Amino acid sequence: MATGRTHRPATRSRGIPEATVARLPLYLRALTALSERSVPTVSSEELAAAAGVNSAKLRKDFSYLGSYGTRGVGYDVEYLVYQISRELGLTQDWPVVIVGIGNLGAALANYGGFASRGFRVAALIDADPAMAGKPVAGIPVQHTDELEQIIGDNGVSIGVIATPAGAAQQVCDRLVAAGVTSILNFAPTVLTVPDGVDVRKVDLSIELQILAFHEQRKAGEETGQVGPEAMEGPEDTAPASPARPTATATDRKGPDGDVPAVMPA
Amino acid sequence: MATGRTHRPATRSRGIPEATVARLPLYLRALTALSERSVPTVSSEELAAAAGVNSAKLRKDFSYLGSYGTRGVGYDVEYLVYQISRELGLTQDWPVVIVGIGNLGAALANYGGFASRGFRVAALIDADPAMAGKPVAGIPVQHTDELEQIIGDNGVSIGVIATPAGAAQQVCDRLVAAGVTSILNFAPTVLTVPDGVDVRKVDLSIELQILAFHEQRKAGEETGQVGPEAMEGPEDTAPASPARPTATATDRKGPDGDVPAVMPA
DNA sequence: CGCTGTGAAGGTGTTCACAGCG
DNA sequence: CGCTGTGAACACCTTCACAGCG
């Protein structure tokens, strides 16, 4: 079964590395800020600092686009803004639909930096009939029934899913069937899509959990410990820790201890 | 100048790879779903499908945690839920503050899967005095003036920034000074933080731009082209394309063409 | 001389393929 | 016999360090 693949395996010899693509928007934002302050040129060092990356990485990234700098000087801000915009496809504009106009969907609809760079909210779609017609961010909400129609009429190829998790796959399927080939998913579900459709996910609770992991590690370091597994001590200090399914007495396979204490304070 | 570093350089020999950490929440979610359906065990193949990754990767990921499976059978669901929760630090709960209660902040406050797994919204903070006292998601909003007090009293170590971009760095500095060491940033800015503070960012427009890049590439492939730079044609078809800063006549350094046509239709 | 652009080296992450245990 | 756990190969990404151009 095809689990929602996100990127094709970097075919095409002259492809820009995925990691680089992911940073181009960052550079673009920094450059736009410079442009607004009428700064004419910028060095890799300065721009890298503004974008929060190191300068070698930035230079290598730009080298995939071409030789757009001037040695001994730096990069022409306007020129680079144009080149990156073009590379990202922001010189055309992309109609986008947002499906699921709850708290989050409304927040997205109101998000300014949205329309600013190449993206246009073509429609807001919600399953709740009571929402239909109500304007959010100046755009009237339309009912899910009209989804296919809207996608078709507006030539939408990018969809944003901000529905509850339970509805996400179904909405996704309809979007894809109607012709959408790129999806930004805010629902906490794994979406399954056919080949050729890109999915990116944004997931609050995943991000928080990653932070918690590092946070916990820091706390451990302070007291001279490595992590949750580093504390050796009397067994079963942890609350309701499930026993191993069929554990023999000598069965201790975890990297350090099986059932570590999770310090309450 | 220290640009906001996010991870320490993978010190500590028995560290779990960052990429693995980032997937643990995914596994956890899939396992939780299985647990709710009272599924007792699961194979790497099944679980991988549910989490949207391949099974070899999943097995390797789990191998960093320890040998928690049973050969010929699979993994005990409950046991694995516990082990991953523990590894992620979700067996303790983390008080979190959300700063900036606009559309997005409200959406985050209302987000359910939040409280469910180890995270507790300790406070909502906003700079607008008119918001003070108003309850959002059942929690009264407090004014920014009280930020330090709130952090201290509640022992908050994780902060979520959902303010406008302009306020983000300032809020960040105050959070960090008050003792927060992990930040989830929704504002479209690069945050600079001292060493030892983790920042993760969630950025809608970056995600959209990445999708646009791939989308454009797809469109190019359909018509037998690679990307924006592949179209050879009469110069200056593109609107307002800035000329190269100090270009000599033979100056053509881009990978294919300097000023490509961006097809309007 | 200063800065870009880039080979080369070193890391990190992924995938393969199979040994080995239950 | 089936499935986990893992060495080894591979692919990708980052960083270094410096050649070379303006």
Automatic annotation (TrEMBL), chains A, B:
Annotated segments matching region Disordered: 219-265
GO molecular function: DNA binding; DNA-binding transcription factor activity
Residues annotated to bind NAD(+): G100, I101, G102, N103, L104, G105
DNA-binding region as annotated in the record: 26-65
Main location: cytoplasm
Keyword Transcription regulation: yes
Subcellular location: Cytoplasm
Keyword Protease: no
Keywords per UniProt: Cytoplasm, DNA-binding, NAD, Repressor, Transcription, Transcription regulation
Gene Ontology BP annotations: negative regulation of DNA-templated transcription; response to redox state
Biased composition, class Low complexity, residue ranges: 237-249
Residue ranges of every copy of the CoA-binding domain listed in the record: 89-190
Gene Ontology cellular-component annotations: cytoplasm
Function: Modulates transcription in response to changes in cellular NADH/NAD(+) redox state.
Subunit architecture: Homodimer.
Protein family per UniProt: Belongs to the transcriptional regulatory Rex family.
Protein name listed in UniProt: Redox-sensing transcriptional repressor Rex
Source organism (scientific name): Streptomyces noursei (Streptomyces albulus)
